[in-house]
Write a structure and sequence with these properties.
CATH topology of chain A: TIM Barrel
Radius of gyration of chain A: 18 Å
Order of helices and strands of chain A: EHHEHEHEHHEHEHEHEHHH
Largest interface: A-B, 47 and 47 residues
Helix content of chain A: 40-55%
CATH architecture of chain A: Alpha-Beta Barrel
Number of strands of chain A: 8
CATH class of chain A: Alpha Beta
Strand order of the largest sheet of chain A: 1-2-3-4-5-6-7-8
CATH superfamily of chain A: Aldolase class I
Oligomer: homodimer
Number of domains of chain A: 1
C-alpha cells in the first residue's frame, strides 16, 4: 500500500455546507489555521457559491483574506462556475486567494440537474469555460459526484465514470476525485474505479461518506488500488441534501487512526485533532458520527 | 475473495449481554427464530453464564428449549467453564440444547484475570477440561479475546495470538475466532493474523467491534485474508464493559449490505433484517449504531 497519501480536511466546506447556523468568519479562520497547524497538507477552506443559495459561504473572500498561510499547504475553494473562478482570481490577484480550486461534474443527468442545475452537456461546457477562466493560476481538482451510485438513477455505469475521469484530465485537471456523494459505494467498486482511474489522470482521490458504514473499508480499498488523496471531515460531519438521514463524510480522526495503524505516516497530530472533534461536539451540542474522539486513541501495533 | 462466508448473528448473546433490562424469554426466542428464518446459518443464542453474574442469561436452558429449530442452523451458546458445558450437555440430552458452543481464552494475562477471573495457565487447563467435558457432542468454537489489543496491556504480540490459535486447534476447536473485543484493530493486523491463522486452524473467523470505525475495513481485510466466519450483531449493539463509551459489534445489516455489494451471496434477507433493526430501535428507545437501517438500502452495482 502506498505511503504517499494526501489528506484533505473538508470540514470548513463540506462539513459546514448544510449547517443552518452561520458560523462566524473568525471561527472558520481559526479552524482552517488549526487544520494546517495539525499537519494537513490540504484544507478545503470555502466555496465561491452564490451567497443567496449557500449563505454559509457568503464570507468566502473575507475568510480567505484573513487566513494566515502555512507554507506548502494548499487551501482549496470550490468553484462551480466561471463567476466563481473570477472571484477566486480577483482574490488571488489581491494576494489572498485559494491556491487550489475544485470543479464539479456529476456522473448522472438527474444529479447534474438537481445539484448543479445544468444538463450534462452544459456541465462539460462549464468545465471548459472554468478551466479557461482559471488560466493555469490554480491547482485544479476535478470532482465527479455520485460516482458510485445516484439517489435518482441508482447504479452508475463505471465506464461512464471512467470516461469522465479521462475528460477531466484532458480538460486540464491536475487531479480527479471520485465522490461517493450519498455513501452507497462498496470496496470492489472503489477498487475497480480507482485502479482504472489512475491510468487516466495524473492523480486520483476519493471523497467518501460513511452513510452505510462502508466508508472506511472503501478508503482502505482506494489506497490499495492506488488513490493518493483522501478527503475527510473532522467529526464525520457533512452530508448531502438528497440523503437527509445520512451520516456525513468519513471522520478525519478515525481515518487518521486507521492510517497510522496501517503504518502510513500522515504527518497529522491525531491527539490534537481529537481535541478539535471534542470542541466541535460542544459547539454543535450533539454527538458527532466520528468514533475515535469518543472511544479514545490506541496503538494497536507495537512500535 | 472467498464467497464461502458464514455469518453468525450475535445479538441474542453479545448484543444483550450488557442490556440492564432483562429481555423476556419469549422475545429472545422470537428473535433467535427470526434470525434463522432470515437466513443466518448460525445464531448465537445465549450463554451458560452464572445467573448471579449475568442475570440476562438466567433463562439459557428455558430459551434453548423453547426455540423451534430450523434444520441446518447452528445455535451457539457460550460456555466459560466445565459447569456451563455440563448444563449444555444436560439440555442436549433432553433434546433441546445448543449444537455449537464457544470456549473463551484471552490473549493477555490482565484481560484473562479481569474477564474470566483466571490466570493464563488456569485458562488453558479450563480449555482442556471443557473440551473433555463436551465429549465431542458439540461443534467447538475457540474464541480469543483482545486478539488485536488489550485495554489493560496495550498492543498484543501477534506471535502469542497465533500460538493460541494453534493451541486451540490442538485442543480440539473446530474453528478459531479472533476477537477485537475493544475495537482497536486495523486492517493490516487483521490481514496478518488471519492469513497466518488459517494455516493453523480448520476454520478461522473474526469477531469485530466498530468502536473506532475500523470494523468494516477489518471485516473486508479478514475476508481477503481467508476468514470464513464473521460475527455481527443487528443494529451494531453489544460491547465490552471495559470500553464503556464504545460502540458495539459491527452491525449485521451494514455488513450484509457490504457483502452483497461485493457480490457475496450471504443468503440473508437484507430488507427483512432492516425491519428487525427498526423494531429494535423502537424497543430500546434509542438510535442504534447501525447505519443502513437509517439510510436505507441501495444496489450500487447493477445486477
Amino acid at each position: 500500500m502506498t505511503s504517499d497519501v494526501t489528506l484533505c480536511e473538508c470540514f470548513a466546506r463540506d462539513g459546514l455546507q448544510h449547517e443552518p447556523q452561520f458560523v462566524p468568519t473568525a471561527t472558520k479562520r481559526a479552524l482552517v489555521e488549526r487544520f494546517a497547524a495539525l499537519g494537513f497538507p490540504r484544507v478545503e477552506a470555502t466555496s465561491y457559491s452564490n451567497p443567496k443559495v449557500v449563505p454559509q459561504f457568503a464570507d468566502a473572500s473575507e475568510l480567505l483574506k484573513s487566513i494566515e498561510r502555512k507554507p506548502g499547504v494548499f487551501y482549496k475553494a470550490t468553484c462551480a462556475n466561471v463567476k466563481a473562478v473570477e472571484r477566486a482570481l480577483a482574490d488571488l490577484e489581491a494576494g489572498s486567494g485559494a491556491n487550489e480550486i475544485s470543479l464539479l461534474v456529476s456522473a448522472t443527468e438527474s444529479h447534474t440537474r438537481k445539484n448543479l442545475n445544468r444538463t450534462r452537456a452544459e456541465q462539460w461546457r462549464n468545465i471548459a469555460d472554468t478551466v479557461a477562466a482559471a488560466g493555469g493560476r490554480f491547482r485544479l481538482v476535478g470532482t465527479i459526484s455520485v460516482a458510485f451510485g445516484c439517489p435518482f438513477e441508482g447504479a452508475v455505469d463505471p465506464a461512464r465514470v471512467l470516461g469522465f475521469v479521462a475528460d477531466l484530465a484532458a480538460a486540464g485537471a491536475d487531479e480527479v476525485v471520485l465522490a461517493d456523494t450519498v455513501g452507497v459505494g462498496v470496496p470492489r467498486q472503489v477498487k475497480h474505479l480507482v485502479s482504472e482511474a489512475v491510468k487516466l489522470a495524473p492523480r486520483v482521490g476519493v471523497h467518501l461518506h460513511n452513510t452505510r458504514n462502508t466508508g472506511f473499508a472503501n478508503a482502505y480499498a482506494a489506497l490499495e488500488a492506488g488513490a493518493t488523496v483522501l478527503d475527510a471531515s473532522v467529526g464525520g460531519l457533512g452530508g448531502c441534501p438528497f440523503a437527509p438521514r445520512a451520516t456525513g463524510n468519513i471522520s478525519t480522526e478515525d481515518l487518521v487512526y486507521m492510517l497510522h495503524g496501517e503504518g502510513i505516516d500522515t504527518g497529522i497530530d491525531l491527539a490534537a485533532l481529537i481535541t478539535v472533534a471534542e470542541w466541535l461536539e460542544g459547539q454543535l451540542g450533539r454527538q458527532l458520527p466520528g468514533q475515535v474522539y469518543r472511544a479514545g486513541t490506541f496503538a494497536p501495533v507495537a512500535a
